[in-house]
Design a protein that fits this description.
Elements lengths: L8 E4 L2 E2 L2 E2 L3 E4 H7 L15 H62 E2 L6 H13 L8 H7 L16 H4 L7 H4 L8 H5 L4 H4 L4 H16 L19 H7 L10 E5 L2 E5 L1 H13 L1 E3 L15 H8 L8 E6 L2 E6 H13 L4
Antiparallel strand pairs: 1-4, 2-3, 5-8, 6-7, 8-10, 9-10
Helix pairs in contact: 9-11, 9-13, 11-13
Length: 347
């Protein structure tokens, strides 16, 4: 049964004893509470305030649309601001990368160059400066070697207990490797698992075998040792000038002196040929005019950077001083250079 409320109020007539009662005005909501609702098809329609509700709904709809538009604008503004910030950050990152690329270019193409061609006058000027340059106190190998003979570190020596000055007198611990981990061990051997204890157990024959094996890699299968020395104009100091620096007798016939990180070595032709190959693979530093290389100085990697105001190198590269020239080498070439220093030292 359907019941419809058709007015703002319902006039209810109560009849008793056949007489008509006075009309009573009852609120619609109250009537709705008492009217029986018998099923889902029942419907109560309340018309009171229908016009007002329609206006209110319309207002609420407009308010929602207005709020939606405001929210969309806020989101669009936030998105634009975020996009602007991302572009700004991207621009900053590109600037940093560009500066880093420039620094790397300065290192590899500016301050360090692959080939150096010098006139005779330029070489004489540089060599004169080298011969007069003094090494830092406690790092001058010409003074140290005059007082203490070179020796080989052995397993009985605790390297941590050695003063740095004394450590320089052990030829199997070059200064450029003294602060490495493990200490003193050439980088290629260290990567193969050679420990400090194993390294210092090698005798002269072992060191000679290591050098020859590495040297032959550089010389190649076609190399024939005819006793001639290759000419390499990139090596600044001559054998005679190195002898002068260390007050040495002239090199015996068929041999030459070279100078590696402050220590003179005596080389046969095959050794010298390998040395020039290493030199060809290096990059040469072009220092500020106010800086002078001290060829007799034995310096660690950190001391080289600090003394000559050099940037820190990426992993796998090292600094060294060869015949008075400051160079940059990769691990393999650097190891060959240090094996020559260890196995061919003359003191």
């Amino acid at each position: 049964m359907k019941h419809c409320l058709t007015a703002a109020t319902l006039i209810v007539f109560a009849a008793t004893s056949g007489t008509q009662a006075s009309p009573i005005a009852v609120p619609a909501t109250s009537i709705a509470e008492f009217l029986p609702i018998t099923g889902p098809d029942s419907l109560i329609l309340i018309k009171e305030g229908k016009g007002k509700d329609k206006k209110a709904n319309k207002k609420r709809r407009k308010d929602r649309e207005k709020a939606g538009k405001k929210h969309r604008k806020a989101r669009e503004a936030a998105a634009k601001s975020h996009e602007k910030a991302e572009k700004k950050q991207e621009k900053a990152v590109k600037k940093i990368l560009k500066e880093a690329e420039k620094d790397h270019k300065d290192l590899t193409e500016g301050r360090f160059v692959q080939r150096v061609v010098r006139s005779d006058d330029e070489r004489r000027t540089l060599v004169d400066a080298l011969l007069s340059a003094r090494a830092p106190d406690g790092r001058d190998m010409s003074a140290l070697l005059a007082a203490v003979p070179l020796a080989l570190l052995g397993q009985q020596v605790v390297i941590q207990d050695l003063p740095e000055r004394e450590l320089l007198t052990y030829r199997n611990c070059p200064p450029g490797l003294a602060k490495k981990d493990p200490p003193c061990v050439p980088p290629g051997l260290a990567k193969k698992g050679v420990t400090y204890e194993e390294w210092v157990s090698y005798d002269d024959d072992d060191l000679d075998d290591l050098l020859i094996a590495r040297r032959d890699v550089y010389l190649g299968d076609n190399y024939r040792d005819d006793g001639d020395f290759p000419e390499d104009v990139r090596l600044l100091l001559t054998s005679e000038q190195i002898a002068q620096l260390f007050d040495l007798e002239p090199a015996p016939e068929g041999q030459r002196y070279a100078l590696i990180d402050g220590l003179p070595v005596l080389l046969e032709s095959a050794d010298y040929a390998a040395l020039t190959k290493v030199s060809e693979l290096s990059r040469v530093a072009e220092l500020n005019d106010s800086l002078r290389i001290a060829p007799t100085a034995a310096l660690t990697q950190e001391e080289l950077r600090r003394t000559y105001r050099l940037p820190e190198l990426e992993d796998g590269y090292n600094y060294a001083v060869l015949n008075g020239e400051l160079i940059q080498l990769d691990d393999q070439a650097y190891e060959t250079l240090q094996l020559i220093r260890v196995a061919r030292a003359i003191f």
